[in-house]
Amino acid sequence: MKLSKRQNAILVGSILGDAYVQATGKKNARLRYEHGGKQKSYLFWKVQELQPLFNGTPCYLERKHPISGEKYSYWRHQSFSNELLGQWRKFFYPKGIKCIPKTLAKVLTEPVALAVWYMDDGYYYLYLGRTSRIEAKIAQLALKKNFELFPVVVDKKRKGFVLYFSPKETEKLHKIISPFVLPMFAYKLRHNFLTP
Predict the structure, then answer these.
(1) Which of 13, 23, 137 is nearest to 90 (CA)?
(2) What pLDDT digit, counting tens, does each position of 25-41 carry?
(3) Cβ–Cβ under 8 Å, residues 161 and 155
(4) Where are the alpha helices (DSSP H) in 148-193?
(5) pTM
(6) What are the backbone dihedrals phi and psi of residue 61, each rounded to the nearest 5 degrees, phi first?
(7) For 106-163, what is each residue's pLDDT tens digit?
(8) What H or E segment, with its residue span, contains residue 65?
(9) CA-CA distance, 5 to 11, in Å (whole number)?
(10) Which of 105, 162, 176, 179 has its Cβ near the most Cβ atoms within 10 Å?
(11) Does domain 1-93 have CATH number 3.10.28.10?
(12) Can you tell me the distance from the alpha carbon of 192 to that of 196, in angstroms, rounded to the nearest whole number?
């Protein structure tokens, strides 16, 4: 199976963001998307963009929080298992835990990848999850090399490392990603650079 340049970019942005690539054997893996009830259209957009990887339609689920007991809803869709996703699993989960690969700059090259990552996990920060400072620096350098963006690595303690964008860098970032940001995320764009 082959994906287009755009599809691979959306996949990279998704994995850097909220997606999970689950191993299903030695060589294969599948992609899982989960988004809150209010982000149904966003999940459907991702599934449509990566149509060769998915069959069927997303499902609506409800769950109780184990501590608060509060009920919340979300949408989930999982791709079918294949070797291509198995390769992405090895790249981003070499030891079974998601990381920022040393060669991130080779795959994070398209503005749409950056836009998807931002729609998933961005505002004035790009969240990196449970990564090391070294991995955060790798992400920082990838943005510098490929997009001429200069975020600062910040330790948010319990939330992990993030890339912080100053007002000037935020404006540069928004100009790069705005053509690819969906209208539902217009509130995340500082001066609303969304094109009609």
Answers:
(1) 23
(2) 999 999 999 998 888 99
(3) yes
(4) 167-177
(5) 0.90
(6) -130, 155
(7) 999 999 999 999 999 888 899 998 899 999 999 999 999 999 999 999 998 878 899 9
(8) none
(9) 10
(10) 162
(11) yes
(12) 11
